[in-house]
Design goal:
The protein has eleven helices and 20 strands. It is an alpha+beta fold and 422 residues long. The chain has two domains: 255 residues, FAD/NAD(P)-binding domain (3-Layer(bba) Sandwich), CATH 3.50.50; 151 residues, no CATH class. Strands 1, 2, 6, 7, 8, 9 and 20 form a seven-stranded mixed β-sheet that branches. The chain has a six-stranded antiparallel beta barrel with strand order 11-14-13-12-15-16. The protein has a three-stranded antiparallel β-sheet with strand order 3-5-4. α1 runs parallel beside α11 and α9 packs across α10. The longest helix has 19 residues. It is elongated, with a radius of gyration of 25 Å. 44% of the residues are buried. The structure holds flavin-adenine dinucleotide. This is FAD-dependent oxidoreductase. It holds the Pfam family HI0933_like.
Length: 422
């Protein structure tokens, strides 16, 4: 039978991690499943997760702690996290040949450090269930009858199903296919969408000298967030200079708070490159380095203290004559240098947009979804999974776990309850 002549039990729209897990699970539960993806291949975004290594879940947190990380909407995930939590995800991939390891902060990665292995396992899962795959298929319209979704219109014909799962993702990194189509489809069916906004986004700085530091990655630094001379938050860890400002784990995790504060007024970041040293210890350390290079020019005396790329910028910002002999720096000049090393100030110009954000905040209003089944409370044969819903978390594997948990529950429920069946 041709694709357009049969009626599937479940049609899943979107071949990202949520859609793949939902389609595979529905098929394992006995349903005849079709998966529709508009790209020419599946999981385009999944392949770039975790810088190509794919941080697939977070293993440190138990259910309650995990949910706390997701902010005020976190409790919505409770049922699906119980049904398919981090340990189920690890077990799922281990059983499909993807060995996993746990890194700092409970971040789980494949031992191979290759996101392609994660995608391969998910594709294996839908193949096991004989999921019918339709690629290069952009949905043109939805056909609803008697408050049930009946068909989806593709350029070449219509696909009929008893139940439908929307897993089209959000708006982050639209070049991967996540162009927010599902928001429009859901709105058309009567769902409310909480305004999508970029989350986990890099920061743009007003200072133009950041461009000179592009690509510089720093470990074990502290970044403090300031507004109106008050410290609002701080993070310790890894950050990365970009052409326009800063990115990397601690910046992405601060970005939601930065976005909130920017609505109130100007925001500053203060970087401490030497958070392990108090002022007297740092001053001693600087004195030692200057003394060891006392006959060299100041500009050539900081090699031990700072990464090469940072030195010219620090020298410029210090205002100290770069050819002055290192041994001749005054106490005040040393203090200036120490201040730069512990409180380098960046004025935040704004957050980067969807093109550089890691996830979308906002999405389908959770009030209109049953958390136990992921079923729409408006259209009884429609289910949601993944980033399309109004739930997101920090970096660390939380966002993919949301996709897997909701994908599992949506797939299982859509297969079990063929509400749209005649
Ligand atoms: C650079 C980057 C790194 C990341 N790293 C991590 C990480 O290490 N760990 C982590 O937990 N999270 C990470 N994330 C977040 C994570 O990738 C997403 O939360 C996740 O991919 C969302 O999955 P999804 O299935 O809901 O949607 P998506 O992955 O966005 O997939 C949706 C799919 O639906 C398809 N689609 C859209 N509209 C239509 C349509 N009209 N018809 C048919 N198909 C359609 C799209 O083409 C796409 O393939 C990262 C994100 C980015 C951008």
């Amino acid at each position: 039978m041709g694709l357009f002549d049969q009626k599937f039990d479940v049609a899943v729209i979107g071949g990202g991690p949520a859609g793949l897990l939902a389609a595979g699970t529905a098929a394992q539960s006995g349903a005849g499943v079709v998966l529709i993806e508009k790209n020419d291949r599946l999981g385009k975004k999944l392949l770039i997760t975790g810088k190509g290594r794919c941080n697939l879940t977070n293993a440190v947190k138990d259910g309650r702690d995990f949910i706390k990380e997701l902010g005020k909407n976190g409790p919505f995930l409770f049922s699906s996290l119980t049904a398919f939590g981090p340990h189920d995800v690890i077990d799922f991939f281990n059983r499909r040949g993807v060995k996993t390891k746990v890194e700092r902060g409970g971040r789980v990665f494949p031992v191979s450090d290759n996101a392609a292995d994660v995608l391969k396992a998910l594709i294996g899962y839908i193949n096991e269930g004989k999921v019918k795959l339709v690629k290069n298929a952009e949905i043109l319209d939805l056909i609803k009858e008697n408050n049930l979704l009946k068909k989806i219109k593709l350029p070449d014909g219509e696909i009929s199903a008893n139940n439908f799962i929307f897993a089209t993702g959000g708006l982050a990194y639209p070049q991967t296919g996540s162009t927010g189509d599902g928001f429009g489809f859901a709105q058309k069916l009567g769902h409310a969408v909480i305004k999508p906004e970029p989350a986990l986004a890099p920061v743009m700085a007003k200072e133009k000298w950041v461009k000179e530091l592009e690509g510089l990655s720093l470990k074990n630094i502290r970044i403090n967030l300031w507004q109106n001379n008050k410290k609002m938050a701080e993070r310790f860890g890894e950050a990365l200079f970009t052409a326009e400002g800063l990115s990397g784990p601690i910046i992405l995790d601060l970005s939601q708070e930065i976005g909130r504060l920017l609505k109130i007024g100007p925001v500053e970041l203060k970087i401490n490159f030497k958070p392990a040293l108090d002022y007297p210890t740092l001053d001693k350390r600087i004195q030692k380095d200057l003394a060891a290079n006392k006959n060299k020019a100041f500009k050539n005396s900081l090699d031990e203290l700072l990464p090469q790329k940072l030195i010219p910028v620090m020298i410029k910002l210090s205002g100290i004559e770069k050819n002055k002999k290192a041994g001749q720096l005054t106490r005040a000049e040393r203090a200036k240098l120490a201040k730069l090393l512990t409180e380098l100030k960046l004025n935040v110009a704004g957050l980067a947009g969807f093109d550089k954000a890691i996830v979308t905040a906002g999405g389908i209003d959770l009030k209109e979804i049953d958390p136990k089944t992921m079923r729409s409370k408006i259209i009884p044969n429609l289910y949601f999974a993944g980033e399309i819903i109004d739930l997101n978390g920090p970096t660390g594997g939380f966002n993919l776990q949301i996709c897997f948990s909701t994908g599992f529950v949506a797939g299982r429920s859509a297969a079990g309850k063929n509400i749209g069946a005649k």
